[in-house]
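Backbone-to-sequence.
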């Protein structure tokens, strides 16, 4: 036993004696003995040796320590050029062995139908003739999947495939399984009491999927859109007095059974507040706060409106800047009375920090010129920084509709009193090619092909060309608008147009109009706009020969004498004169021109206009538009007033003054019912002693009182043997009360609403031609006894059988129901109205339909 222990002890001692020198030998060859020049490189094909060596940075004394070697190894791996990098020591040298990544020969996409190859190629980082990297390929596959998810396809699968090629090259193929579009199956609201879910769905942009969703994209689930909807809901409540509102969450859940998302908005409404008082305070001694009161859009007793409050602050701050207080800051403060549910508002005007704009940097505009963006600012480099003006510029840029997104950020400038404005933009397509189709009971079938560009040449110009062809209406137009004439906020518009209206069941004549109209537009306020215009156009009437061959005077060679065989040789005709022509004898029993109308002539004013040939109208005019609607396409609240006036007679053949006003007031009532009051009126006056043309008169029908045909009311030729053309009037008025309500039993996304309405109106005072010496005709207002005049019996003495017209100032009224459809094919409307009071010769049309689309 003792011997064995000695042997083991001796062996252990020997091992220790051998191990110690070996350890000393390892320590005696430190890495610091290496230099960059002593690094050997193996395995490289494309990457130069010196390039690889350059990643190893020597330490003090030009030597490489272990830290420098580790840093170099890490840097080489991060280049992505190599599959593998190994470092060894051999023969006193540092050996770097690399395995280079392959080079990508080509990149292809398969299975992608909804997204083009060009869009996918722009998104991925892997490029042809670039270095192949497996982590980068996996990242690219995720990028492609994200593109599809943004368009609502959450079932997408992207599989990269690598095909080896000679000379260390690979082909990269991304196989895409697009899957079906993932839509929003339901939208729910929790906690809403003041407003129904039906009403709140009007506020948000996200829509539920339905049978017609394939025509739009609002039903596609987009998390960014849902988040934006939260803000829209919050702002809607704040606008309507709910100052404590909170949209706590927008919960989204994917339902595999429904293959779509369920979106739920959780809301805490709070109480509705009213304004108890409005006061002004200022720390600027020379500023009169009383003069700022007129810029406040909030009033005592009104419902608290955060949007009106924001606009008040903006206008006050801008006004203070105009008065020389460039750094003035308006801060609103609201003190709430929770028991009385009121808010006391105080506008505090103080001197803000003296900060100037050093630079305005624009980023993201690849097509739009810089000056198009900069001109939306009311400030420039070197001006005092004014947040209200910056916010206004951001709003203007969004309203241009040139960009997907607009953000204006501030960055520190070169000193503490300097800031840099950064305008971040994302451009979108601004060109439109549309094929429009529609049908109406007035114009029949109608089609339009148009091409337009809202940002022509990237200069912010608008251009459009359109061609229309329909059953009764045809034409074309060219339009051009420069919104900044000579760099002023004045819009110049130019329109060239040709219109042709064909004869139909409502009018016996056709018209052709060719014209040109320049105009200037001025934005006086956000809700008030002025337009001045000049119009010059040539108009001509067309008629078939059989409607225009009237001549009661056989001695007049202007027109061929036109006696009617139906009145030849009338038995028992009293002595009144007989004329023989063409082997037949006709007797004039009334001396009022009966012969012309026995075969169905057009009315005197129509034929007289035809005989006059082309008429040139040259006029100047203006329009004032006041608009406070909450939504121009689907208004539920606000006022729209349009006042127009035109003065014809600046040269040309026609002289008149035409004035018209149209006002619509929308107001929400109860249970999503919207009330509409529509008032309109107009007047036509002659001047300069010239006669008014029939074509210049107002023509009214369902546009004034529903239930009547186009040109169906007002003064009319009532001769029983003529075409009974509508003559029009120089005065009109109209009033309408309407209730619009949703069909609550239908999904909101269907876009159907119903309406009930009552209309009233009148058109009267015809002042056009009433006689024509060339044909011997004379108009007689309201004088006719059609039962005493036939084609086979002589007229009784004293009856009026010439050209007569009805011009009574009768109030027409009607009641009706309608269906309004905000369809994917465009806005459609169906109306059925029943006239309650009408004139003897008015034309009724109880059903009316109209609509169209662009696709």
């Amino acid at each position: 036993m003792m011997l064995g222990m000695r042997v083991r002890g001796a062996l252990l001692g020997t091992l220790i004696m051998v191990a110690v020198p070996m350890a000393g030998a390892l320590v005696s060859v430190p890495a610091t003995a290496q230099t960059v020049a002593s690094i050997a490189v193996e395995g490289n094909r494309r990457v130069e040796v010196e390039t690889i060596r350059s990643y190893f940075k020597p330490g003090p004394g030009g030597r490489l320590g272990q830290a420098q070697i580790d840093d170099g190894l890490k840097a080489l791996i991060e280049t992505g050029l190599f599959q593998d990098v190994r470092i060894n020591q051999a023969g006193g040298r540092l050996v770097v062995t690399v395995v280079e990544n392959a080079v990508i020969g080509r990149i292809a996409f398969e299975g992608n139908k909804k997204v083009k190859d060009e869009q996918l190629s722009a998104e991925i980082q892997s490029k042809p003739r670039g270095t192949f990297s497996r982590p980068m390929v996996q990242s690219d596959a995720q990028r492609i999947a994200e593109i599809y998810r943004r368009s609502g396809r959450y079932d997408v699968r992207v599989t990269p495939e690598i095909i080896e090629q000679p000379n260390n090259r690979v082909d990269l193929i991304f196989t895409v399984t697009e899957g079906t579009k993932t839509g929003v199956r339901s939208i729910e609201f929790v906690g809403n009491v003041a407003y129904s879910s039906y009403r709140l769905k009007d506020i948000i942009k996200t829509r539920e999927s339905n049978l017609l969703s394939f025509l739009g994209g609002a039903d596609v689930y987009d998390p960014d859109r849902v988040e934006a909807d939260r803000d829209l809901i919050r702002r809607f409540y704040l606008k309507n007095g709910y100052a404590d509102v909170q949209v706590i969450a927008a919960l989204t859940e994917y339902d595999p059974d429904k293959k779509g998302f369920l979106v739920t908005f959780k809301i805490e409404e709070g109480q509705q507040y009213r304004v108890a008082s409005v006061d002004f305070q200022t720390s600027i001694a020379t500023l009169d706060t009383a003069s700022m009161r007129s810029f406040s859009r909030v009033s005592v007793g009104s419902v608290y409106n955060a949007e009106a409050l924001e606009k008040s602050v903006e206008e006050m701050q801008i006004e203070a800047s105009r008065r020389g207080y460039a750094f003035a800051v308006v801060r609103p403060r609201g003190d709430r009375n929770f028991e009385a549910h009121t808010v006391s508002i105080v506008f505090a005007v103080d001197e803000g920090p003296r900060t100037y704009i050093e630079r305005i940097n624009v980023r993201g505009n690849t097509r739009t010129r810089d000056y198009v963006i900069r001109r939306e600012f009311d400030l420039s480099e070197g001006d005092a920084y004014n947040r209200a003006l910056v916010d206004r510029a951001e709003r203007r840029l969004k309203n241009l509709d040139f960009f997907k997104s607009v953000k204006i950020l501030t960055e520190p400038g070169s000193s503490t009193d300097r800031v840099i404005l950064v305008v971040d933009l994302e451009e979108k397509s601004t060109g439109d090619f549309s094929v429009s189709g529609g049908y109406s009971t007035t114009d029949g079938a109608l089609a339009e092909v148009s091409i337009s560009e809202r940002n022509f040449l990237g200069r912010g110009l608008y251009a459009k060309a359109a061609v229309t062809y329909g059953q009764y209406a045809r034409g074309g137009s060219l339009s051009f608008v420069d919104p900044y004439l000579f760099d002023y906020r004045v819009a110049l518009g130019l329109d060239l147009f040709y219109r042709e209206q064909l004869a139909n069941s409502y009018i016996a004549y056709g018209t052709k109009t060719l014209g040109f109209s320049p105009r200037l537009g001025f934005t006086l306020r956000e809700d008030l706009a002025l337009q001045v215009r000049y119009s010059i156009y040539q108009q001509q009437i067309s008629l078939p020969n059989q409607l225009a061959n009237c001549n009661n005077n056989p001695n007049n060679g202007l027109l061929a004498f036109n006696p009617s065989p139906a009145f030849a040789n009338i038995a028992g005709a009293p002595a009144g004169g007989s004329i023989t022509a063409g082997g037949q004898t006709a007797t004039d029993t009334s001396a009022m021109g009966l012969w012309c109308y026995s075969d169905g002539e057009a009315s005197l004013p129509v034929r007289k206009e035809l005989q006059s040939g082309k008429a040139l109208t040259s006029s100047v005019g203006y329009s004032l538009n006041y608009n406070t609607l909450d939504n121009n396409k689907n208004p539920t609240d606000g006022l729209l007033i349009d006042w127009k006036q035109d003065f014809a007679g600046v040269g040309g053949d026609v002289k008149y003054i035409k004035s018209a006003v149209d006002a619509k007031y929308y107001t929400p009532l109860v249970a999503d019912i919207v009330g509409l009051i529509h008032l309109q009126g107009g007047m036509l006056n002659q001047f300069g002693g010239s006669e008014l043309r029939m074509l210049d008169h107002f023509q009214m029908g369902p546009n004034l009182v529903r239930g009547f045909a186009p040109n169906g009311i007002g003064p009319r030729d009532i001769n029983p043997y003529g075409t009974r053309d509508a003559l029009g009037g120089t005065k009109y008025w109209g009033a309408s009360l309407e209730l619009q309500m949703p069909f609550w039993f239908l999904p909101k996304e269907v876009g159907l609403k119903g309406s009930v309405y009552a209309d009233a109106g009148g058109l009267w005072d015809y002042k056009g031609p009433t006689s024509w010496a060339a044909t011997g005709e004379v108009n007689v207002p309201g004088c006719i006894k059609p039962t005493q005049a036939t084609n086979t019996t002589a007229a009784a003495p004293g009856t009026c059988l010439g050209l007569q017209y009805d011009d009574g100032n009768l109030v027409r009224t009607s009641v009706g129901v309608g269906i309004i459809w905000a369809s994917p094919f465009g806005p459609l409307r169906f109306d059925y109205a029943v006239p309650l009071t009408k004139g003897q010769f008015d034309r009724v049309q109880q059903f009316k339909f109209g609509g169209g689309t662009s696709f």
